[in-house]
């Protein structure tokens, strides 16, 4: 997992959830940190813009943990 990509994704999650980066821990769900489907759409669009990665609709959902999302998104960037 690229440390730089992971850091950028965590910062984006924190920004969208309006919480501190220290509150973004791997075991918390996206819903726990305050993200909804609109936020997830924005994150998917950001991934496309920043890395050229298309995140299919429904791949991100608020019941996923931050760790699961980080694993998924960083895996997509190395393909």
Tell me what you see in this structure.
It is built from 3 helices and no strands. It has helices at residues 3-17, 37-51, 66-77. It has a single domain, classed as Non-ribosomal Peptide Synthetase Peptidyl Carrier Protein, Chain A (Orthogonal Bundle). The model has no long low-confidence stretch (mean pLDDT 91). The longest helix is centred in the first third of the chain and has 15 residues, at 3-17. With 79 residues, the protein is mainly α. It is globular.
In a few lines, what is going on in this structure?
53% of the residues lie in helices and 0% in strands.
Write out key terms for the chains shown:
mainly alpha; 79 residues
Topology:
Elements: H1 3-17, H2 37-51, H3 66-77
Helix pairs in contact: 1-3
């Amino acid at each position: 997992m690229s440390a730089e990509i992971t850091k950028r994704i965590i910062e984006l999650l924190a920004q969208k959830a309006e919480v501190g980066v220290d509150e973004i821990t791997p075991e918390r769900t996206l819903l726990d940190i305050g993200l909804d489907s609109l936020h997830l759409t924005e994150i998917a669009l950001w991934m496309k813009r920043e890395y050229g990665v298309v995140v299919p609709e429904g791949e991100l959902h608020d019941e996923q943990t931050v760790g699961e999302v980080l694993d998924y998104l960083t895996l997509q960037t190395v393909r």
